[in-house]
């Protein structure tokens, strides 16, 4: 929308790739050059032209998504790569300019809490309570903080949100408090 008049500048309908799934933009959008990149309710990732709203590319929902369920995905940008979480226990890296899959990692846990990124790495809050730092360019693990614990074990400390970042540290919101970890 135009700030002074409230006039809508563009609208792009984001439809689901299959029946009985959700369309629409979900979660926060990220930006790379002339693109705005967002997840669709059914698990697609889309790149839209920032000026016109024209659909530039689409990355299909994860192949692991075999049921009629949706996939709540979060996205972040680092090193020209869109890093996308998935509730299917997979983590994907897509080329920010084209949407082509650059890499895929299968994890022990999905991510319902999101991720953050700096210039070269993504920091993924896993649903089982740990944070995974990965190289955005390759998807390889840099380090893991915390431990994966069953959600049914209330005695363990768990990550409960998207990590915050500054130049040198990762700030992790947790069930019983906050944590500060050096990158």
3D architecture notes:
This protein is mainly beta and 183 residues long. It has strands spanning 25-32, 35-40, 45-49, 55-59, 75-78, 81-84, 90-95, 101-106, 115-117, 121-125, 131-135, 141-145, 164-165, 169-173, 178-182. A four-stranded antiparallel sheet has the order 1-2-3-4, with no helix packed on it. Strands 5-6-7-8 form a four-stranded antiparallel sheet, with no helix packed on it. The chain has a four-stranded antiparallel sheet with strand order 9-10-11-12, with no helix packed on it. The N and C termini lie far apart (37 Å).
Topology:
Blueprint: E1 25-32, E2 35-40, E3 45-49, E4 55-59, E5 75-78, E6 81-84, E7 90-95, E8 101-106, E9 115-117, E10 121-125, E11 131-135, E12 141-145, E13 164-165, E14 169-173, E15 178-182
Antiparallel strand pairs: 1-2, 2-3, 3-4, 5-6, 6-7, 7-8, 9-10, 10-11, 11-12, 13-14, 14-15
CATH superfamily: YVTN repeat-like/Quinoprotein amine dehydrogenase
| Estimated helix fraction | under 10%
Q: CATH top level?
A: Mainly Beta
- Largest pleated sheet: 4 strands, antiparallel
SSE pattern, N- to C-terminal: EEEEEEEEEEEEEEE
Total DSSP E strands: 15
CATH architecture annotation name: 7 Propeller
Give the end-to-end Cα distance, rounded to a whole number of Å.
37 Å
Shape: globular
Average of the residue pLDDT scores? 87
The helix-and-strand class reads: mainly beta
Strand order of the largest sheet: 1-2-3-4
Count of runs of 4 or more consecutive helical residues = 0
Low-pLDDT residue spans: none
Number of domains: 1
Strand content: 35-45%
Q: Indicate the radius of gyration in whole angstroms.
A: 17 Å
CATH topology: Methylamine Dehydrogenase, Chain H
């Amino acid at each position: 929308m135009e700030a002074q008049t409230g006039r809508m500048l563009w609208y792009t309908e984001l439809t689901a790739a299959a029946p009985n799934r959700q369309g629409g933009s979900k979660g926060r959008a990220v930006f790379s050059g002339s693109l705005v990149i967002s997840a669709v309710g059914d698990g697609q990732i889309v790149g839209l032209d920032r000026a016109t709203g024209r659909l530039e590319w689409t990355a299909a929902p994860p192949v692991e998504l075999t049921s009629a369920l949706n996939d709540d995905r979060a996205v972040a940008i680092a090193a020209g790569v869109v890093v996308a979480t998935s509730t299917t226990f997979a983590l994907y890296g897509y080329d920010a300019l084209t949407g082509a899959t650059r890499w895929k990692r299968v994890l022990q846990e999905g991510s319902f809490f999101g991720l953050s990124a700096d210039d070269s790495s993504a920091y993924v809050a896993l649903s089982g309570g740990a944070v995974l730092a990965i190289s955005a360019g390759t998807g390889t693990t840099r380090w893991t903080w915390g431990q994966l614990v069953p959600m049914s074990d209330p005695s363990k400390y768990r990550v409960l949100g998207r990590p915050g970042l500054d130049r040198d540290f990762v700030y992790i919101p947790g069930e019983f408090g906050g944590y500060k970890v050096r990158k």
